[in-house]
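ok posting inputs for the zinc ion job
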Amino acid sequence: MLFMSSAFKTVFTFLVGRPLLAIVLAAAVVGVLLLGTHRQDTPVTHRTQHVKLTDAQQMQLGSQEYAKTLRENRARIVASGRQYAEVQRVARRIDAVASRDKPNFVWKVTLIRKREANAFCLPGGKIVVYTGILPLTENDAGLATVLGHEVAHATAEHVAERIERQHLTEVAAMIIAGGVAFTPAQFVRLTALLGVGAGLPFSRSQESEADHIGLIYMARAGYDPRQALAFWKRMARASRGQEPPEFLSDHPSDTHRVERIQGWLPQAQREYSRT
Ligand SMILES: [Zn+2]
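and the output
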């Protein structure tokens, strides 16, 4: 069940018995929500985007998925100790930089005890890190590389773009408006787009953009961007083993990744020298 406020619950209960009214109402709400497409420039790469879901709507979608993830992993949440402190420390610095591009987003990070080498940031700024990635990040700068990349997916509104491209914006808006009137198939496709733990299908160009923005973010946060190269080389080595890290299977790697990062390095080092 989706998270709903008690007011929505009352309305929802009322509408369940009146499906036609529910559909008309939902369509009206969606019509209002979708009047304006907002245009934004992506941070760092300055690509013009046309996205209909507002910051507030993206935050609500992300928060619902975040609450679900935390509920499902309640017994595995790490709330103290060295790894917890490291994740909080690095996330705070990266989030402070990302906030300049997305001042409305509310950033929060949770560390979950899992062997999977993975991390993700939901739309609106809610971050989840699995302990399994920490042996690969090795140090704060390595973790800043991962968090910079993940947070960049959120500030560049990549999920909203994917939702839009799959013509699911109306479904998303309806879910945000209280979960009335959607087909199960659409709902499954939408949650697959949000279901980051299970492999968020970002496009290759979005991945590359997240690498670029993330590199600049880590530099602005005061981490040596050359450490990003060291991290991606470690990941490439690890992926030659029998089981490549999940982080790479979610984020398809290619031989050009390190070369592209090398190309952005002078820009990143200028930003780093200003910190
Ligand atoms: Zn990615």
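notes: The chain has a mean pLDDT of 83. The chain is about 60% helix and 10% strand.
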